[in-house]
Amino acid sequence: MDARTQSLPLLAAVLEYPDERTAGLARRAADLLAGDHIGLANALWDLAVWLENTPRGAVEERYTGLFDLNPVATLNLGFHVFGDTYQRGEFLAGLAGELRQRGLEAGLDLPDYLPTVLRLLGRIEPLEEAGLLLSVGVLPGLAKIGESLKDSQDPWSRLLRALPDLLAELCPITPVAVLARSPEASAHA
User: For the segment 62-85, what is each residue's pLDDT rounded down to a tens digit?
Assistant: First the structure.
């Protein structure tokens, strides 16, 4: 297994609604990424320590307050990129098809839910297709989440701000993907 197929499912699990396994998963992901992505590994270690030292009810309340009750930080990437528009509907439909094609399910979440997208990115081949998804939906969505959480010292916020560097390295963005997201390309379309 390569770093992409190992780390992305772990990160997906860490970003889902927290349970008794989340701290251990965060530590495993941190150990896996510590050699090349120390900033992300530190954010994961800090999250693990915080989870281990915070009462479960407070953890759940913080997660819900940060991601579920606050639309500026929702983990539904398409919302950040497209808002509630027809384009988001197309994005969701496309993701649903990609998930089905790779034997993945979104469960009760929409297909643009960040943990679901991370699992998908871990399975997309060739990597160029992953780069296209990153450039069109994932990195712009994470940038908006990161901007909305820029002053937060919350352990999940630090993790989300560190995640784009890893994704850009693991799933290279091709020139075609960059062209697809460039304002110049949109203006000429």
Answer: 999 999 987 789 999 999 999 989
